[in-house]
Amino acid sequence: MSNSKDLDRIPQSVIDDLISQTDILSTIERDVHLKKSGRDYVGLCPFHKESTPSFTVSPEKQFFYCFGCGADGNVMKWFEEFHKMSFLAVLQDMADKARTDLTPFLRTAKLDAKVGFNVLPALGKAKDFFQVSLQDNNPKSKAGLAREYLASRMVSDELIQRFNIGFAGYGKMIVDALVEFQDPLIEAGVLDRGDHGVFSKFRDRVILPVRDYRGKTVALTGRALLKEDSPKYLNSKETPHFNKTNVIYGLFESLQHFGVTQLERLVIVEGQFDVIAHHIIDMPAGGVMGSSLSIQQLRLIKRYTAHATFVFDPDTAGHKAMMQTCALLLEALTDVDVRYDIVVLVDEDPHTLITTQPEAYKAALSEARPWLDVLIDNIPGADRIDTEAGQIEYATAAVELISTARDPLLRHQALEKASAKCRFPVATLNEKLMSLPPARSGQAKPKEKPTQSMSEVSIRLARMIWDEPQWSKAIEDPQLWISQGDELTSMIGLWAQGYRNGDFDASPTEKEAEDLAANPAQASKINKARRARGAAAAFGRMVSMLPSHYMELLMRGEPETLESLAISLSWHITSICAKKEMQELTQKAGLNIITDEERERFRGLVVTIQVAAKRSRSIDT
């Protein structure tokens, strides 16, 4: 969910504007296989396990909703929940793409807001400074030692430039050079504040900038030059823009160097120098930076390559990482768009093997095995499969593991392979599988039950004006809806007020601005489109703040399409709200505490009800 503190710093209208300029369909289609169904698109929900598609994306509403688990939201919520990006990172990314300057809104913001938004520029400046420092020829500098270290690891000057490699030397010099960015660099963990003032955490280290898939420097890694320095590798801190599970080191560099938007093959390794070594042999590579593969990294892999090969060391840690990767693939895969395979090296790590025996390393890659075969061969009990105890241990572990698979075809394929391995019939393994309790994804949220009855008329109208915001002009008195309506009706009234005031108007997209410049006569049409776009984004956000059953009811039915019906529904709701307020005023009159202003209000409500009776006759209630 969006952080309320962040919402206080940036006007909601600005956030809604950015959301409205980001197409939710093209965004989600990069991560979920969708098929057109009427006006919407459907697919398997990424937030819970299912075999029948219940996940819906509405391009018109710029919203997603799952009828199975209740997951819902706009494109910002998608990045936050699916990609696990922070609100701040999503907002800044959207602003960059929309070419929107958020600086004016930060001038009056709290210091921590300014710091958060300045982290990326500050890291970029630090990266630039460290790059220059690596070329320092001063005899007192240890930059020469850093260059010697890189040369010993076969990192050429060209690779130094490609990966923006730098050097952090004397701490005070670093602090003085980056004094303008002191606060955001402390936030990012490059600098720190102690009893004697600010100091640099990176000293006498080769600096490896970590760039995300867009090329933005989101973190720094420092490799110690001196044996006595610990730790050997030091990372800057996690920020709203950086989490090790969300970044693949070297992905951007591979895409840039090979000049493509999707790589034919990407080798996934652990260490950063392992990644750089692959560029020596002209091969794209990415690194998980010492952690096990995450679902977010797997999504990046799927987006940017057609063939991923995971390379593991032959030690215990390598075997554990291999099994974790295979288990994640089993659970997460729902299509066969990408080919995944596995290589387990015999002796050396990738960097050593590439720099000493490149042909042997290429030969190992050519013998990569399909990931599912590797998984099936390494399930517990596989080494004792010839014994009855081993056979049962293997079958039990295999079924439990296979039960996590979301895709029914992959689940069946895995059962067949496990059956061949342990010699139990597929039917027997499947019977065991069916007896297990259904597994649920940790991302799925429990559906709330309706807490109160609600007006079907309000539901019908809400469906209509979400698609056609201009029809809300028939709402005669939005304030009356706010004060007298149920939760949904009050929300519609609040939204209608904002829509009329232009609070939700979206800025023109780049294409709309170009069309307007080329043909000013199209101004009315373009303004109508951006108004509707912004209003739809705001409507979805406000509905999502209500209990979840409202969203389910709105998304489940198709909207009716007659404006005359929308007008009738609006007047019907107005009549109900007016009668409720009249009852309150009647009670005041009975207690003789009614004011003259309230008596005038009563007379106005009588007229409103009379008009509503004529204007709402056409609805079927």
Report on this model:
Helix content is 52%, strand content 11%. The chain is of the alpha+beta class. The protein has 5 domains: 4-97, Alpha-Beta Complex (DNA Primase, Chain A); 111-241, DNA primase DNAg catalytic core, N-terminal domain (Alpha-Beta Complex); 245-377, Dna Topoisomerase Vi A Subunit, Chain: A, domain 2; 382-435; 456-615. A 5-stranded antiparallel beta sheet has the order 1-2-3-4-5. Strand 9 (205-211) and strand 10 (217-224) form a beta hairpin. Helix 15 (316-332) crosses helix 18, helix 23 crosses helix 28 and helix 24 (487-500) packs antiparallel against helix 26. The radius of gyration is 30 Å and the shape is globular. The chain starts with a helix and ends in a 6-residue tail after the last helix.
